[in-house]
Amino acid sequence: MNALRTLSLLAATVTMGLMAGLFAAFAYSVMPGLSRADDRTLVVAMQRVNESILNGWFFVCFFGALLLTAVAAGLHLGAGWRAALPWIVAALVLYLVVLVVTMAANVPLNDALARAGDADRLTDLAAVRDRFAPAWIRWNLLRAAASTAGFGLLTWALVLHGRASG
After folding, report:
1. How many whole angstroms separate alpha carbon 74 and alpha carbon 12?
2. In terms of Cα–Cα distance, which of 9, 53, 49, 153 is closest to 95?
3. Is the pLDDT of residue 30 over 90?
4. How many Å apart are CA 77 and CA 82, to the nearest integer?
């Protein structure tokens, strides 16, 4: 059972870290770079990113972070393992914030950008960009912060778990 506790917490930490890295990379690199590009480049690039990110690897990490953190929390309910539990639960709450923000803000913005259509046929690319980029960037910063904090909490939970295992 201890091996399952360890593996679930380790897998939760890795998937949370991968998601934190993805959101953070968009926050400090991708979107600042695209913000310096012309309207067409930003619109087309984000349309293509939003199409390509919907793949198996993304879904494994995106939903894995949630499910594995929940499993790790459940497996740390027993006596002797509870030192890590508050940290795991706090990470789970932070990742729920990430999910809510993604579903309530970023996905609708992505969908609206897709509905805008082919950038070569749009008459007002600047308006499409202005409806998308500022809000998407703002919400992504929240996802980056929450998932990075969750990753840190799970990392600390691993330390505590290791102490309890020793």
Report:
1. 12
2. 153
3. yes
4. 6
